[in-house]
Amino acid sequence: MRQNDNNSKRNDKDENGFEDRVVAIKRVTKVVKGGRNMRFSALVVVGDGNGHVGAGIGKAAEIPEAIRKGKEDAQKNLVTVARTEFQSITHDYTGKYGGATVLLKRAPEGTGVIAGGPARAVIELAGIKNIRTKSLGSNNKQNVVFATLSGLKAIKTPEDVARLRGKTVEEILA
User: Fold this and answer.
1) What's residue 64's pLDDT?
2) How many contiguous H segments (helices) and E segments (strands) does the chain have?
3) What pLDDT is stored for residue 4 in this prediction?
4) Residue 46 contacts residue 19 (beta carbons within 8 Å)
5) Mean pLDDT, the chain cut into blocks of 10 residues (174 residues total)
6) Residues 21-56 as b or e (16 or more Cβ within 10 Å = b)
7) Which residue, 15, 32, 67, 165, has fewest beta-carbon neighbours within 10 Å?
8) Using the 8-state DSSP alphabet, how is residue 173 labeled?
9) Cα–chain-centroid distance for residue 117?
10) pTM for this structure?
């Protein structure tokens, strides 16, 4: 069984400017009347390093085909991430998916990316340079990736919050 714990060495940029990273490859088995049916499942994260990131799962009989399908699925599920001028998130947030919870904390310039394996792949491909994260609950790679994505998707800019509340940005930040 091939397991990728180090976010894989495979980083490719395609013609759209998206970079992809394979987070995990699993061998899955379906038991049928004639025996066991082996396939591979690939969890792939894609991003442009400029605030757009997505994750997808692909399943196929061969690993390269599973990775290709995962990449296509990830590009269909892109989200836009609100970032500050020093490449961090605008406010702290907790993303949840399944049994996984990921705490996302903003960080000052020069902090770098402090994140574990699956969450780090999502954050780096989103183009965030300064952030602190903590993975709570489940350590399932798939759930941690999707929890990180849900947290990043829910983060709003001060301008968005001001518009929703009918106030000025200065009133919100005060």
Assistant:
1) 96
2) 5, 9
3) 47
4) yes
5) 46 74 95 93 94 95 96 94 89 94 93 92 94 94 96 90 88 79
6) bbbbbbeeeeeeeeeeeeebbbbbbbbbbebbbbbb
7) 15
8) H
9) 11
10) 0.87
The Cα–Cα gap between 166 and 52 comes to: 27
Return the closest-CA partner of residue 43 out of 87, 97, 94. Answer: 97
Using DSSP's 3-state secondary structure scheme, residue 43 falls into strand
Q: Report the pLDDT value the prediction gives residue 2, as an integer from 0 to 100.
A: 43
Q: How many CB atoms lie within 10 A of CB 166?
A: 7
Got the DSSP string for 107-158?
A: --TT--EE--HHHHHHHHHHT--SEEEEEEE---HHHHHHHHHHHHHH---H
Domains annotated on the chain, with CATH: 11-79 (3.30.160.20), 81-165 (3.30.230.10)
